[in-house]
Amino acid sequence: MNTATSRKIINLISITGMAFSIALAIYFFRLGFFNDPKALQSLVSQATILGPLVFILIQILQVVVPIIPGGVSLAAGVLIFGPVQGFFYNYIGIVLGSIIVFLLGRQYGKPLILSLVSEKNYNKYIGWLDDQNRFDKLFAWAIFLPIAPDDTLCLMAGLTKISLKKFIWILLLAKPASILAYSMLLVYGGNFISHFL
User: Fold this and answer.
1) CA triplet 75, 93, 188: central angle to 5 degrees?
2) How far apart are CA 97 and CA 85, in angstroms?
3) Short-list 173, 156, 83, CA closest to 117
4) For residue range 108-127, what is the model confidence (pLDDT) as tens digits?
5) Where is the VTT domain (predicted)?
6) pTM for the whole thing?
7) Contacts of 8 (CB under 8 A, 6+ apart)
8) What's the whole-number mean pLDDT along residues 93-121?
9) pLDDT higher than threshold 90 for residue 195
10) Please, are residues 102 and 92 in contact by the beta-carbon 8 Å criterion?
11) Which alpha helices (DSSP H) does the chain contain, by range?
12) Measured between alpha carbons, how far is 123 from 171 in angstroms, rounded to an integer?
């Protein structure tokens, strides 16, 4: 099998996988799994053995398909599975989704990125890509902080010369802090604020 044929097969598999992911995400979205923690909890609890795997798949989808709000599924993971297991499942799903997004950005470049990210956001972060060392540092900080647009930056990181190995290490080391902070804020922030009102 020559290189051109291999590339066509890889592209076909990637496009099919992306189409399946989008279709599944839309199906889950219509059923309310991404904006209603109770619906998500019902789905996961019905699949007792596969519950964690279903939840991880949902987390991967919410990263790969950027129309889905990730905040609800982050909080739902903690509420459904408890703080330790919920954190672990959130972490696995988000890291795997981020790696997929990075590889898609690297494979298909600017046309795909502009189809998933607004031109305003693209223009906002494209300047980060000019200096690789600067990008690596900014990217690591952005992944560490819970308020950064991680999915957009992971997608755009595919346009840089950052190695997959370095990208994964940044995710593995920096992502836990933002997942923990964001999950705790979503789950317990409301209760904390209500004590002062």
Assistant:
1) 15
2) 18
3) 156
4) 888 888 887 788 888 888 88
5) 68-185
6) 0.73
7) none
8) 86
9) no
10) no
11) 3-30, 37-46, 51-64, 70-81, 83-116, 119-126, 132-144, 150-157, 164-196
12) 23
